[in-house]
Amino acid sequence: MANLGPLLAAALTLSCTAGIGVQPVLSAPSDPEIRQLLVERIGTRESGVGIVAGVVEPAVRRVVGHGRLGSADPREPDSETVFEIGSIIEAFTAILLADMVTRGEVHLDAPAQSLLGPDVRMPTRNEAEISLRHLATHG
Question: Who's near 49: CB < 8 A, 6+ residues apart?
Answer without folding.
Answer: 6, 7, 8, 42, 67, 68
